[in-house]
Amino acid sequence: MVTIDLAKEERLHRALEPFFAAVVTERVDYSAILTRPEAVDLVAMTPSARHMDGPDLSDHGVLPDQVTVSVLVTAYQPR
After folding, report:
1. Predicted model pTM
2. Running along the chain, 79 residues long, what does each successive block of 10 average in pLDDT?
């Protein structure tokens, strides 16, 4: 699977800074239990899908049955 880009938040903030000011940022974290089809769908929505082939997503591939959702939600306002 593709790993998380640790510099993504800062890069996004720098790109938006000339046009928008961050008003509030909140971290949202929770665990979710997944069925096999849900895990396949979840991987298919990520860049990881381009790095995995059919067997990785087949019934014999190893996919998680539980994931941790962790996102930063930031509200911006125009400058």
Report:
1. 0.62
2. 81 95 96 90 80 63 83 94
